[in-house]
Amino acid sequence: MSSVREEGDALLEDLFEPLDGEAGPARRISRQRSAALVMAALEAGNREAPARPRVPGKRPPVWLVVGAVLLTGAAAAAVWALARSESVPESQMAQSQPEASLPESAAVAPAQAARAEPQAPASAAVSTPRVPVMATPLEGLPRDSTPPTARKQRSETPTRIPPTAAPEDLLREANAFRAGGRWKDAEALYLRVIREQPSSLAAYVARVASGSLRLEHLGNARGALRQFQEALRLQPQGVLAQEVRHGIAEAWRALGDKAAEARALEDFLTHHSDSPLGTSARARLRELSSP
Amino acid sequence: MSEMRSSGSYATVAPREAEDPRIQAAIQGRRDATESLLMELLPRVRNLVRYLVRGDADVDDIAQEGLIALMRGLPTYRSEGHFHAWADRVVVRATFAWLKRARGREARHSDEPMELVAVPSEDAQPDEYVHRRHLVTLLDKLSTEQRHALVLHHVLELSVPEICTELGIPFETVRSRLRLGRTALRALASAGEGEG
């Protein structure tokens, strides 16, 4: 233990102990309170999929992106040139000549064309020979012919949802979209649930989910507020009433309306005084009421 | 980044934490495993937060944020180091982030009355609990910078270079904070003993 420490003395050794989960120094709390904290964390963690806040400063500079694209293009060209010169035996050169003379449109699959497109700005000289290279694996050359996975995923999921899907299935699909960060697709499914069965419990859940999605990921606080308010109007004592009332306060906060936010927080604390979110709600209320 | 804890007590406390099947189950999204894991981690998380922040008022809020950060970070956990060491690092960062956001509230907390040493607790080991509460009441009187350096070094057992990395400050600054913090803490402890 002491090998890690820079220096120390007996008094400090006595004072400090390695961290553990035993008693102290945090105040003891009841088992119920512990469970409530964990449940709230679970709910919040599940509700808010890993948020990628818009931080302009964190975005890589344009020159870096352009440089990376250029570098990638150049590397691809070099690899292509190297692989072509090494992997095609001399004896096949005569056979490969006619392939090269095939019309480009016949040799390029749409997916490959789509893949080649964003690389075009890298270099015109690089993009031109890449087209036949994409086609050569079909001839059995030992080259990586893995299809573009992103495209496969994109075309797969939406077609899986039948037009007559049950609301529960739609919610499940929406949650899957959400877990994958596809906020707009998830939002579309939530709206479909609301539209198809507006008075169902699924629609209530979808409304709340849509509200939090709009607030946290779609930059639509006004829309979020509408969803939360409607959910509260339909089911004031609903199973998600706590989230709804807190969501309303958060939406007002995002809209910059402090008076409305304070009213919403008061309403939240009145109805859910023992909520795990109560402490932060009270703290925010104090902040708002301080001059 | 390399593992935060270079050695320390965890090797003896929980040698096979990384193999806890709940970790993989939680990574795969099983709610029961996550819940069980978080319930077990919560006392440790709360203790760490209390070591790092002044007063008790915000401990549960920050601990909850720590739990959320743990949940979200689970997919990034690689079983290379001890799970607790990884979890501690996540919680430390969540705490620092919270403190950064709440900087304006620091003044209000400093006005809170200092807690008495004898804190009623139903089932705590009285000696140990009182001892730890005593320590944090002393830490509460230090500057935040010195406090963090001391806690990272003496409670989490990070080396000075590791603290440099974690806090993003130079080596000599860490050493200086540790030296000043120790001096201040010794003085506070001695004064307390004199009064007692």
Question: How would you explain this protein's 3D organization?
Answer:
Chain A has 291 residues and is an all-alpha fold. Among the domains of chain A are: 64-88 and 98-138, no CATH class; 163-289, Tetratricopeptide repeat domain (Serine Threonine Protein Phosphatase 5, Tetratricopeptide repeat, Alpha Horseshoe). Chain A contains 15 helices and no strands. In chain A, helix 10 packs antiparallel against helix 11 (201-216), helix 13 runs antiparallel to helix 14 (258-271) and helix 14 packs antiparallel against helix 15. Chain A is globular. Chain B is mainly α and 196 residues long. Chain B has helices at 10-13, 21-27, 31-52, 59-73, 83-101, 106-110, 126-139, 144-155, 160-167, 171-195. Mean pLDDT of chain B is 79; it is low at 1-18 and 107-125. The interface between A and B is large, with 44 and 66 residues.
